[in-house]
Predict the structure.
Amino acid sequence: MDFSDYTVLIVDDEKNTRDGLRLSLEDEFDVYVAANIAEAEEILKNDTVHVMLTDLRLGAENGMELITRTLAKPKAPVCILMTAYGSVDVAVEAMKKGAYDYVSKPLNIDELEIVIKRAIRSRSVEEENQALKAQVTERYGLENIIGHSAVMQPVFDTIQQVAPSRATVLIEGESGTGKELVGRAIHHLSGRPKSKLVTVHCAALSEQLLESELFGHERGAFTGATERRAGRFEEANGGTLFLDEIGEIDLNTQVKLLRAIGERTIERLGSNKPIKVDVRVVAATNKDLSEMVREGTFRDDLFFRLNVVSIEMPPLRSRKEDIVLMVDAFLKEFTEENHKPPMDLTSEALQLLLEYDWPGNVRELRTAIEHGVVMSNASKIGIRHLPMFLRDDSHSGFRAESSSGGVLTSPTVIPGDDLNIAMMEQKLIRLALERTGDNRTEAAQLLGISRRTMQRKLKEMGLVDG
């Protein structure tokens, strides 16, 4: 493990101690020093610190107070207490306040290095575990349903409310709006996340095949049934069954499905033996089931059984403010999948996406971004890299790109002032500082520049003293 990337802050009111520790540790770590709480907090505010090593006595101040205040901050460093007044009581108090460990003065530098490295390794393991949890949440939780628009908030609220229950859920919405993602989120946020989520696409199967798929069959139940087969209800036992395009199920199968949901019992085709199943059903449709009930093509009792909780997925055209978030996520996904460096859209291409009405919804947008990533060999995806249907003049006021790659658009798309490099650089730096809460180290990392370069740029901007 390379410890040179890790920052250690030494807080001690004795200059000789500070300087001696810095000289002893700087070959292994990136070391900062502070003489008091104010200096320490200034460093903690502006730079990333992984380990803080503080003396108990800081003149008239107390190192315990610094530890308490530091650990209350987000992304707090590991704290180690130094004390010449070593006692069990001091150690216990330090640990209660959240300190990782304590060391007694006079210090043994070799032992101190071991304690610091152990603290860093411990924090790294912690962060890895948190990252793994975040990946699971990103893959299966609400984070995978991208959106911060007002129309999506009721969707998120309902998912979180209904997920822990046993209630059946009906997800309605146009094709491509992300109904299956909602179904997955409900399952993985439920009390059954370790059990199976089984999906059946009802429209893809004939009546007999759908019955067999759902309930299973015995050998000889129909032509071609050469062996016994368990159905999806049995496969999902203890978990969740997601029935996509539920409006395509014929009336005969609807009767059997009603019994399976209501009585939690199924029978395989060719058998009269009831089989108990514990399955939570989540269904999705792009049809108006209430209208189908009025027309007599969907059973009202099954509709009421499915529609215990209803979630309406809004079309993408009604939440265009989410498009930028989705584009970012899809760009990351497809550049990684296609082993390409990070890409971005030109402002013209993004504007085109924002003006289009997306009849195919999120699925159509996702396809368009994949097309752009595949067709572009540069860091930017322009209009010419997007699918032909987006470039049709009927969908936007943009003109085609020139063969040399330039975009022939109205000059109002990019105001001339924005082409000033110095101004754009300052805007980026201010944006990076805003996103990182004025943490200069993280802002520099976000911009891909060194901490020293960031410091120099800030001086040039007059944001720090020269």
Notes: Residues 317 and 364 are 12 Å apart (CA to CA).
